[in-house]
Design goal:
Length: 608
Amino acid sequence: MTVTLYGDKVPPADDRPTVQVTAVQWPVEEAEKPTKRGGKWSFPPGGKWSRRTWLLAAGVTTAVLASAVGIGAYAYAGDVPRGTTVLGTELSGYSQAAAVEELRAAVERQAAELNAPLPVVVGDNTAELVPAEVGLRVDVEATVAAAMQVEAHVFERLVGSRTVPPVVTVDVDQLDAALKKVLGDDGRTMTMPAITWSGLTPKATHPKPSLELDPERSAQAVREGWLSGEPVTVPLAQIHPVTTAEEVDQMVAELARPAVAAPVTLTTDQGSMSIPPAAIAKSLVFTADDAGALSAKVDVEKLRTALGDDLAKVEVTPKNARMTLTDGKPKIIESRDGKKLDTSSLGEALLAVLPQSDDRRVTGTLTTAKPELTTEKLAGLGIREQVSTFTTQFSGGLSSPRSQNIITAAKDVDNTLVLPGETFSLNGHTGDRNYAKGYKDAPVILNGKLVPGVGGGVSQFTTTLFNATYYAGLEDVEHKPHSYYFSRYPAVIESTIFYPELDFKFRNNTEYGLLIDTSYTSNKITVSIWSTKIWDKVKTEYGPRKNITKPKTVHLEPGPNCIAASGSDGFSQSAYRVFYKDGKEVKREKFSWRYAAEPRFICGPKPS
């Protein structure tokens, strides 16, 4: 056999080193072969295997092996085996650092070709990607490392050459975003299995597979096909939901329909009640996870909502501690524990009996339900003395609609407890003040004039409450004075209200609880705040009235909606809330307002 070795660069023909090895074979009979005894070889006398012959054979073998070792050393001189090319660039015999430098230079020389638009096919759509925009590049260091790896026999390297494909990297996220634009609307999201309710009828939604890109498979296809010179076909993955259409239909037949076929009896140690099919339908929920596995559960909170007041048959509502004033002193009405269904296992227990046609019973456990405000907590809130009080007067007696509205609001707010840090909203507390709640039609200001409106007069109660909290030193959160000045109210520090746009809010910015106490006579409304006193006193200092304007006379069409008014001056003014502690002023707050001049409304035509 003849083996020819070549160096890094192709040398002239007559310069190529050649080693020729001729294989020989000696036919030897078994008896003539030398033997080894005691570590020494012995040769049969007169035999063909003389010591000289044996040494000659050994010498030939050693020469062959030495030649092979020399050939191997020559073939693997440097870090990169000889005969290795990458991207058309020979790296034979280079050190690793030199190979990296050589390959990097080759990549730079081929930059235009490597950055040429890459045609891709995604579904039925074709497009061209700019390699740099998706992070597609040759990893030079990794490619050289791959070229240094030797996997074949040395002699296969000596008689030929090898081409090492470059190691290609790509930004998977950028590539996926670009390919999604190519795919466009041709993709398909997974239709999840579902069971919904139309009254007591379950409606099945059968699943459908998605047709979408798989980012890792897309990246692999682009890496492998980038330098092939051919368009790269990006595969699409069809992903099926775990639950099949047949399984959805089975769940409808074996669970959903039987679930609402009859009521379920819930038994507790407090009594029993029936859970009707309508409540079951509202609480039996079917959901699919991300893989499309459909499951069912009873949402106990939805069940509680659906049962509503019926739960009172087995539950006892806890009662908060309350406070009232008795003989001019705060008195606590103790709290009371309640009984509430333990929901931790109720849902699973109910789900277990819903497929059954008979013996539809579950047992519920009642646990102690503590009130939000216990007697002990209320006792520790420090409500012990009156810290402020304010009174305004009204006319017409208790029989007038306006007076009735004032008293209705006062009764609603009486004995209201405001905890430390809590914000009180008058609109939030009373809700819409309408006829159903006992409010009457009385004059309100609307679009600059007095007109009949439900709840008229509640602004007087609002002003009284605002002043009580103002002189208690509590934080003003929201209030708005009237458009016109009314002499029955203190200027600037007064408030109107209109549901839901205009509200009055204050915050209990103390560490103590506070109790709102309301009282009334036939011509007065009083609001008092009970808590622990923080300030020695709070008083108001007024600035002068400025920018005074006179009212105009306006004639209105007579009728039930026309309310006459004598008019009032307009002006601007500031009021200062001054806080005193230990006999000294410690802070002051400024309140300013501009009143418009209220026209003199006359119900009748203008005199000619």
